[in-house]
Amino acid sequence: MKQLEELKGLGPKGLRLLNQLGIHTISDLISYYPFRYDILKRTDFNTAKKDDKVVIDGVIESVPRVFHINRKLDKMDFKMNAQGYILSITIFNRGFLKSQLPIGTKITVIGKYDPLHNHIVASELRLGTLEKETIEPVYHTIYGISSKQISHYISAALKEPFCVEDYVLSEYQEKYGFLSKEKSIRIVHQPTNEMDLKKATERIKYEELFLFMLKMNYLKNNKQNKIGLKRTVDYQKIQEFIDTLPYSLTVDQEKSVQMIYQDLMSPIRMNRLLQGDVGSGKTVVALIASYMNYLSGYQSALMAPTEILAEQHYQNAISLCKNTGMRIGILTGKMKIKEKREVYEALKQGNIDLIIGTHALFTETVEYANLGFVITDEQHRFGVNQRSSLKNKGVTPDILYMSATPIPRTYALTLYGDMDISSIKTIPKGRKPVITKIASYRDMKQVLKEMYEQLKFGHQIYVIAPLIEESDKSDFENVNKLSEKMNKAFGKVCRIGVLHGKMKPAEKEEVMSQFSNNEIQILISTTVVEVGVDVPNATMMVIFDSYRFGLSALHQLRGRVGRSELQSYCILMSERETERLQILTQTNDGFKVSEEDFLLRGSGDLFGAKQSGDMVFQMANLKNDFSILLNAKQDSEIFLEQFDQKNFMSNKIMNLIEKSMDLD
Ligand code: ADP
Ligand code: MG
User: Can you tell me whether residue 544 is helix, strand or coil?
Assistant: First the structure.
């Protein structure tokens, strides 16, 4: 196959833009699928109503007249004959086309229809009449490159011979009557009718979902036998510990504790997902569970997705568990080698009972004396793959996953299959729902006023800087710019801190601990604070450019406030798309938010695919393609059962799966 650079008509600028879209090879290019299609069908005038979008073709009847309204605006008028109907057409800023539109030119017009005056204000003109139906692929783009250009490059690539790896076994190919992969790819980019397009997309989606489900099932089957550890613990002791806590447990916390107790006491290995909305109090449940494990003589490990969160859990554990006798340690990537070595040694000797850390906990160098229980916090942040990293430790601990992103039950069952689920739905007593408002930048004064109110009460505020995708550097600039503004407004009345991705872990931690100790009152941050951080005195969250975040991410951010009996506020600064943001002003229920997110965006964000790289599909979507997913699930199970080493194709598939898991 050719190199991307060699593609006809692709210059250095085009190449750079394609690279920015993640396209580096011809095969990346041809698997850069459209995210939607525009279907152009001739409008039936008998049913068209005022302001309908219409597509109509015909011939030009009058010489177009161009009016120059001002330097930036011109207007062109002409008459058109569409199968006997005479329509007048107006289009703006296309005056330059006039010379191409003499009387008798065949043309297609797309625009808004006014039946009373037989008039169309066109948004687009095309030369030529309409085919029966035209299906136009629409690609995700970035500034500087249009969907049309991408389509153009793809057509050039499709003209050359190309080869694609095909991972659908011939028996399934037959079973579903799929087209070949090559043909499907061609159709997806250059569809001629909806029927073929449907078949082609199904083929491609199926392959993606099959490989995905295969990976899931492979992980499940590979899971060490289901025999767990034997323990006996007197529940009385657990109750005594619970009684020392500064609050009483909510009903659902208590239920979860009891379920976990039963799991741990049973000889079957525990594999439980504890889901509960942000702020519902999952951490304490994890600590109680670790205590059960400690009493039965094993070590526990609690893994958090970020260093800040690990540190916070550590402080929390030290304070809540001070009278339990548990020896608690922390291990994160940024610790000095010498400190790490000490922790390694202590873990190996069994001198630490509960270790809290980031995924540094499961790197190869770490050996445990008798690891019996593993908890991963914010599970959705880790990939499914992390599940297999325990395998390397040669142990069969009980496992508890915690997640604040509620997954609709059917999907959870499909994806996590053999997992038990506990849900915490009740929130701690006395909490007031966070009041959420949308504000535009014109309202900035009012927003600052409201911030000032909170500061006067002695409360603290998070400010989230606009999201920048391209680089960490600009991310840092954004935070700094915002901090200058805030300093102007509040520099005299409070201390302001910043937190961004470019800071060293130690610096981040310093700022975070200053914020939790109320030495800083306004924390300006990127989304580093998105998960888990707990500062109950913070009562306001202001999120800039909120329209750029997914709903679930916003809900997580909002979950940083409303963590005490104080009334909290969340202000979503946004110039656009306020309709979507409305959902957040209407509900504080993470489950509802995630359902909406699911409907709006598909599954990607919900399962944290962005972070984990696990569930990024080029075309498939877990919600819309659920029935294909079910087929793929079943087929992948059969595939694993009947796996035949001698079959070339089966081997190829298996290699891909194993390789994809090593990579992470
Ligand atoms: P999450 O489920 O989001 O991880 P946390 O475990 O961080 O939530 O708990 C959020 C806050 O609620 C913490 O400040 C914690 O101390 C507090 N909390 C937890 N359980 C209760 C309870 N039963 N009553 C009152 N406050 C609680
Ligand atoms: Mg948490």
Answer: coil
Specify the pLDDT at position 417.
59
Cα 526 versus chain centre, distance: 16
- Helices 444-456, 472-490: axis angle to 10 degrees equals 70
Nearest to 543 by CA among 533, 532, 556: 556
Q: What angle, rounded to 10 degrees, do the helices at 235-243 and 251-265 form?
A: 150
Dihedral sign computed on CA atoms, order 207, 209, 211, 217: negative
For residue 424, the surrounding DSSP H or E stretch is: strand 420-424
∠ at Cα 606 (273, 435), nearest 5°? 95
What one-letter code names the amino acid at 250? Answer: T
Is the Cβ atom of 423 under 6 angstroms away from ligand 1?
no
pLDDT digits (tens, 9 = 90+) for 405-447: 666 555 565 566 567 778 888 888 888 999 999 999 889 999 9
Task: Read off the DSSP letter of residue 71.
Answer: T
**Ligand 1 pocket, residue 280 CB under 6 Å:** yes
Closest residue to atom 16 of ligand 1, CA basis: 281
How far, in Å, from the CA of 561 to the mean position of ligand 2? 13
Question: Rounded distance, CA 641 to CA 322, Å?
Answer: 50
Q: Which atom of ligand 1 is nearest to the CA of 284?
A: 6
CA distance 512 to 510: 5
In short, whether 276's Cβ falls inside 6 Å of ligand 1 is yes
Which residue has the CA at smallest separation from atom 22 of ligand 1?
428
> What confidence score (pLDDT) does residue 282 get?
93
Mean pLDDT computed over every residue of the chain: 85
Instruction: Point out the ligand 1 atom lying closest to the alpha carbon of residue 283.
Output: 6
Using a 6 Å cutoff on CB, does residue 536 contact ligand 1? yes
pLDDT at 416: 61
Give residues with Cβ within 8 angstroms of 627, minimum separation 6.
Answer: none
- For residue 194, report the distance from its CA to the centre of ligand 2, in Å: 46
Residue 426, ligand 1, Cβ within 6 A: no
Read off the pTM: 0.64
410 alpha carbon to ligand 1 midpoint, in Å? 28
Q: Are 558 and 590 contacting, i.e. CB atoms less than 8 angstroms apart?
A: no
Query: How are the residues of the chain apportioned to helix, strand and coil, as percentages rounded to the nearest 5?
Result: 45, 20, 35
Q: What mean pLDDT do residues 307-334 have?
A: 91
Q: Which ligand gives the minimal distance to the CA of 320?
A: 1
What are the residues whose beta carbons fall under 8 Å from the beta carbon of 139, sequence distance 6 or more?
Answer: 32, 33, 34, 35, 147, 150, 151
Distance of CA 302 to the CA centre of its chain: 24
Ligand 1 atom nearest the C-alpha of 282 is 2
Ligand 1 contact, 54 CB (< 6 A): no
Asked whether the beta carbons of 285 and 261 are under 8 A apart, the reply is no
Q: How far apart are the first and last CA of the chain?
A: 28
Ligand 1 neighbour 283 (Cβ under 6 A): yes
Beta strand 36-41 with 133-138 is antiparallel
Name which residue leads in pLDDT, 90 or 334. Answer: 90
Contacts of 638 (CB under 8 A, 6+ apart): none
Q: Is the pLDDT at 657 greater than 50, yes or no?
A: yes
DSSP state of 315: H
Cβ of residue 310 lying under 6 Å from some atom of ligand 1: no
Residue 510 belongs to what H/E stretch?
A: helix 505-516
- Secondary structure E strands in 465-583: 496-499, 522-525, 538-543, 569-573
Ligand nearest to the CA of 310: 2
